[in-house]
């Protein structure tokens, strides 16, 4: 996943082993997630109540308060998906965890690839709307609602303006020729002139108040480049 495509999903990792937290956090941040960490149960509950994470990766064996109790407390007040971790691949442990509200279960040691797959599965299942949301710079794309939010405001865009802005943003930082934009946004069977691209870029600049062309840059003799930071 392109690091610029920041999903609006918070993940909390709870484990008393710093090496595990560092390993998982590094991998998830590389995928574009916002990641928080806690080393014990009380800290986990405090952070969860504050940030309301969509996903919690929760170790069972924690100092003071074990993962079962943490899971039970959090599930009573927060809508979240909890993936429990244990050093033992024991059926009774799994049953107990699922009975108190855990959504999934993984035994240590685990592969990051499998953990990521389980996280993505939980997001698709429990937070389908968020799975459609992508953040790039000050833009948030909610593809499910067919909506763009820029600097906290919903943009009033026509269908073509929406598709053009989406194509520019999904290729953020890349110079795109007018012919390519025409092909991808208007389609192969469009019989109009390339200057229609210029017209719609001007519409977008007006909507974004991009008078200095700092967001949508013109690359002379080639086309346009989106620069969203």
Structure description:
With 229 residues, this protein is an alpha/beta fold. The chain has two domains: 10-131, 3-Layer(aba) Sandwich (Rossmann fold), CATH 3.40.50; 135-226, Arc Repressor Mutant, subunit A. Helices cover 42% and strands 22% of the residues. It contains nine helices and twelve strands. The chain has helices at residues 18-30, 41-51, 67-77, 91-99, 112-126, 128-131, 159-170, 178-186, 195-207, and strands at 10-14, 34-38, 55-59, 81-86, 104-107, 133-136, 139-142, 147-150, 153-154, 175-177, 216-219, 223-226. The protein has a five-stranded parallel sheet, sandwiched between helices. Helix 3 links the parallel strand 3 and strand 4 (81-86). Helix 7 (159-170) crosses helix 8 (178-186). The radius of gyration is 22 Å and the shape is elongated. The chain starts with 9 loop residues before the first strand and ends with a strand. 24% of the residues are buried. Residues 1-6 have low confidence and may be disordered. The modification 4-aspartylphosphate is found at residue 59. Keywords: DNA-binding, Phosphoprotein, Transcription, Transcription regulation, Two-component regulatory system.
